[in-house]
Amino acid sequence: MESTAPPCNGLVPVPCLEDLVDRDKTHDCSGFGPSHICVRVDAVAELPTRFGRFRIVAFWNNRDGKEHVALVHGDVMGHEDVPTRLHSECLTGDALGSLRCDCRDQLETALRSLAKMERGLLLYLRQEGRGIGLRNKVRAYQLQDNGLDTVEANRALGFRDDERDYGVAAHMVASLNVKSVRLMTNNPNKIQQLEKNGIKVSGRIPHVMPANEFNRFYLQTKALRSGHYLELEGKELELLPEQDDPPVVETSRAT
Ligand SMILES: [Zn+2]
Ligand SMILES: [Zn+2]
Asked: What pLDDT shows up at residue 173?
């Protein structure tokens, strides 16, 4: 896999994650990606979660007020092949349990898997509704409620420039002094985009949702759809692929 050199070599290694805050105080580079995004590590704290122990790293960036975070499990700094998942924020799915998408299941599955590994990294990217924001996402939902099909509604959601987001993600990985990542994804394009932004991707981990969780989610969705919640005017709502990452579901165990 070809990868271009990162545009910044001022990210000196430091012994502890917490030391990144001091290191980055004066950091200012020409930026990653077409939008020249530069990020700084702003704060690091413990974050025990229901999925396992993580530390949370908050980033400042020079482009907008978006507060991206990284969840770090184990020791990732200076390491190769760090299992890494990029997750795009979805308030309705992640926090409110919406069944219009499967973002929450994708997020939970990723955090559970990463917490079981020796080390792992999840970048939680604040690009709600594929980058168009929460209000536009709800507008697209409204269009769908009013009869647009999934493709049309997707088009309403789909005017995000992907490049911009991979620049942020790439700089975040570089800031954490992660040497190379094994990307947890079912989307080969994501790997290419990250590599274009100077990150070494040493492999891919299929992002497979366990059968039991999927069954619960799927059955729940079905139950709701066959009721009167998600079926509107005789039209079933379909899941919107907000994560740019087609879900793969484990239907039978290989072992
Ligand atoms: Zn920078
Ligand atoms: Zn979602």
From this structure: 96
